[in-house]
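Is adenosine-5'-triphosphate placement plausible here? Inputs below.
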Amino acid sequence: LKNVTFGYEDAQEILHEFSLTVRQGEHVTLSGRTGAGKSTVFKLLLGLYEPWSGAVNVFGQRADQIGENDRRKIFGYVEQGFHPVPGTILDQITLGDTNLCREQVIQALDTAGLLDAVQELPKQLDTPYSAALFSQGQIQLLSIARAIAADPKILLLDEVTANLDSNTEQRVLEALQAAARSRTVL
Ligand code: ATP
Ligand code: MG
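Reply from A.M.:
I modeled the complex. Tokens:
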């Protein structure tokens, strides 16, 4: 990000001349008070918004010009809260992307440490998703599996261990360590 100024609403700047360079393979933490704009940086990187001024580039390409298909190969995004899609466990991870095969989904669940729990379900990957199937921590692991399934180069992790008890947090941290290996992480 180079000299990025951005706000969601007119005349309400969230970021002012903000610059940040992350090199391939680096693991970088953004810290700041609530409302400072940390999640906003992720949304700009994902190309969901255009900066008012300045530039947001990913691998030399304007972030908002990266196509839908390329985006999942570049970014794995673990949001501040899990957003389920209608459908099965498999659908939670593929998000309907038919380029992702079952083998990749299983691999992602394994890396996230959720494969055993899914295999105990009556219809395994084909079990219809409901929030009641999993604990809060397991839902985070599912979210991590979703983020890494397409083998992205960059992981964007937004407060993924907030609101977890310390045991669960440990499991999520282990999953993240496995997921972060050989990737660029914010
Ligand atoms: P937290 O630590 O609470 O997650 P944050 O640093 O991630 O905070 P952001 O979510 O980036 O902060 O929000 C920055 C500011 O932008 C806040 O004032 C927030 O209310 C505002 N904001 C975020 N999303 C929107 C939106 N879609 N429309 C309007 N304002 C928004
Ligand atoms: Mg945030």
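Short version: Helices lie at 38-45, 68-74, 89-94, 102-112, 115-119, 136-148, 166-180.
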